[in-house]
Specification:
By secondary structure, this protein is of the alpha+beta class. It has helices at 2-25, 53-57, and strands at 36-45, 63-66, 70-73, 76-79, 82-89, 114-121, 131-137, 140-145, 148-156. β3 and β4 (76-79) form a beta hairpin. Keywords: Signal.
Length: 159
């Protein structure tokens, strides 16, 4: 009886470890599904910052390019950017407060199980993130910047 229980325990642990390893590696190598040109479609204020509402609204209609050989955001461009995907699990336990580094802390889509990120780095500095976007839907991204959420939608693929 003890041996049967032990074997069941080992099987359960092996299965759980294998499933969690698959779940953790899921966002890696997904960057190619996000490549394209995105248009900023809305701006929402979530806290204070130095950017005025008028300045933030000027980004509406602006284009962000996430392509294998280039990244552009307004006037800034990075040739041969380094992209990294990551995933942050959001705890549903009572009393657990999410990090103020993500949008769930401010009440945006807090019912999600996880947040998937796309981080952009300059090729000669892969330690300091230039920019980070949250995947918020099918063909939709969002950037949190200086107290505003900038939501964008995919407009075209990379050429």
């Amino acid at each position: 009886m003890v041996m049967k229980t032990f074997k069941s325990f080992v099987f359960l642990m092996a299965t759980t470890t294998a499933l969690s390893a698959c779940a953790d590696s899921a966002p890696k190598n997904k960057m190619k599904t996000y490549y394209g040109v995105y248009e900023v479609i809305s701006v929402e204020k979530y806290r204070g910052g130095l950017t005025t509402q008028e300045e933030a609204n000027k980004k509406i209609g602006g284009l962000i390019t996430l392509c294998p050989t280039s990244f552009t955001d307004g006037d800034y461009a990075i040739a041969k950017p380094v992209y990294k995907n990551s995933r942050e699990l959001l705890s549903k336990e009572e009393g657990v407060v999410p990090s103020d580094k993500n949008s769930a802390f401010y009440g945006f889509m807090s019912d999600r199980e996880h947040i998937e990120y796309i981080s952009i780095f300059e090729p000669d500095d892969t330690k300091n993130i230039y920019s980070r976007y949250e995947v918020i839907g099918n063909n939709m991204l969002m950037e949190s910047y200086d107290g505003y959420f900038f939501k964008m939608i995919l407009k075209s693929t990379c050429n």
